[in-house]
Design brief:
39% helix; Aspartate Aminotransferase, domain 1; 7-stranded mixed β-sheet; single chain; alpha/beta; 14 strands; 3-stranded antiparallel β-sheet; Aspartate Aminotransferase, domain 2; 2 domains; 370 residues
Length: 370
Amino acid sequence: MVDLKTQYLNMKEEIDQAILEVVESCAFINGPKVKEFQTNLEKYLGVNHVIPCANGTDALQIALMALDLKPDDEIIVPAFTYVATAEVIALLKLKPIMVDVRPDTFDITAEIIEKAITPNTKVIVPVHLFGQCCDMEGIMAVAKAHNLFVIEDNAQAIGADYTFKDGSTKKAGTIGDIGTTSFYPAKNLGAYGDGGAIFTNDEELGNKIRMIANHGQNRRYYHSMIGCNSRLDSIQAAVLNIKLKYLDNYAKRRNQVANFYDEALMGLSEIEIPKRNPNSNHVFHQYTLMVRNDKRDALKEYLSDRGIPTMIYYPVPLNKQKAFRQFVDENLEMPVTEMLCDSVLSLPIHTEMNEELLRFISNSVKSFFE
């Protein structure tokens, strides 16, 4: 699904030198490379505070911990997302309220959210799925009307731009009260191990998040609150600092791949190519088809037989997961989410794909439907 080896070889000298500098300095934890990456990411995103942390799941957990929530406070999340989005909510003794998503862009909207709001609702967690933004202008309006916090789960769309009705733009993850991301190696901005970050423009929240991620302290051995230990190590920061320079080029190349797939596959009546959100550009963390007429699994097997990897994101919706039974009414129906779980299929998409490979994959998909 990704070719990290070739990507590394294309910038080997820079990466090797950056890692060597960390090893020679022996500043492995919270070293200068972490501060350098933090500063560069703040500039890239146009945000006041970036707090690096150990992984994307920690980023979500720490963001929630910063909001002084109480047990059983309700947090609205899409049912069509990775488990981490809801997992941290349950872990903190809060209540995930799962909602359905749009059938075309697979995300939540202001209208969907508004129907799920109760007096116990405190936070909305929109997920910028597969590489493009939700309709954040509408979501922020609902949040303001109901006095709710917004935490953007931006693990899949770092670098994407959201355009407001007045023509202004902001980077994904910088629109809500807090944004979070993951630097898992396969992400568009991926480390060579685990990593994550939290973003905010709020000074008070930024200071609090920084303390929580560092055992609740802003001065060594003086702990003002209960926190955790979640740090981005210096080697990962060094790698990310190099790759950040190429992030926009990665997005451009991924769009070229997506456009090739679109042109090659749009004539097939039994699949639907990815729809672009008109308010957001797309950085294509995934290129995800919808396969009609219950042919998804057969297509996946057909492509596998030809050496083409594919992935199903996600085969089981959150509302059907055993771990969340206590939070979900057994009669709850998520028709769009459940349809997507049965029909979506992601094709390989990465920055090192050449035209020969793209033609082979596209022709293989087309030959299945002939």
